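Notebook p. 47: complex prediction with N-carbamoyl-L-aspartate.
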Amino acid sequence: MGLYHILETQQFKDRKVLEELFSLADQMKLFDKPNLTANERKQCYLLGLPQEPRKKIMACLFYEPSTRTRFSFETAMKRLGGETISTESAGMFSSAVKGESIGDMARITGQYADIIVMRHKMNGAATEAAAHSPVPVINAGDGSRQHPTQSLLDAYTINDELGRMDDLEVAMLGDLNNGRTVHSLAYLLAHRKGIKLYFISPKIMSMPHNIREYLQEKNIPFEEMAATEKQKIEDVLQKCDVLYVTRVQKERIEDKQELEEYEKYKEHYIVNNNWANLMKTDSIIMHPLPRVDEIAVEVDQNPKAAYFRQAANGLYVRMALLKMILDPKSV
Ligand code: NCD
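Predicted complex, structure tokens below:
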């Protein structure tokens, strides 16, 4: 029986059709492996099944909005010759709507894909997925906790622009409490030599306690200040190698007081050319993007503005990461 539209099960009243379908499915299962032996390839040829090693598939499960991270991951996988399956609003369009747990989601997706890239609004979501997944899981942002691949491309950018990863004075500015990129970057820099950090934020948005504790354990010196402390800020701008700016993570702030507090001092947290010009010639301004209004557009033309180059680097760092995790020859 030729099959065309599949609309209802009554179409499958003929037992022979079911038997043919099941036996084909058995063959699909038998030959569902990354590499086939010469003998298996021959069998596939005789059965009219694909004989080439199958391409690796990356599943992107994004429960939160993303432009750069998802697009650069997808482009990276495609450039490496792999394939992608993707849902950009997993919270709305995946079985999460039906109440599926993160663990089950990872268990199932890992049977279709060779790697899972996941962004979720819950802290620890990727760790939970990894505990149940049969394939590697990459955390593309879990709540306000971490965004490790962003920090890898940030570190790449610093190294690319300044020629070193050690002996750096890095100032982080903005919502240091809720911004996950600055958390991951602080943890990453804590393992380099000669690092000095400056945390510039309203008190209510200061770097979380556990990260400050980690830095202390690793003997990484840091200073905290508010942008309203004009003299201190000018000093920092004059000596820092990197000014890393972040936006206020409005979507994560439940406490109205926190937002009101920020609104009060907002204009002090805007980087303009006056700030940029105080910085050393060979220093850079970074931002994970998206930018709202924390960097004035006039700064874009300044050679110190590295944020668009930083975003472009995301592709290459993610290509490298996927190649290191997956068997390179069969990506
Ligand atoms: C960041 C994020 O999602 O944490 N964006 C990104 O991945 N480049 C930063 C942000 O949203 O502010």
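Notes: The first strand starts at residue 57 and ends at 62. The two ends are 37 Å apart (CA to CA).
Next step: compare against the earlier run before touching the bench.
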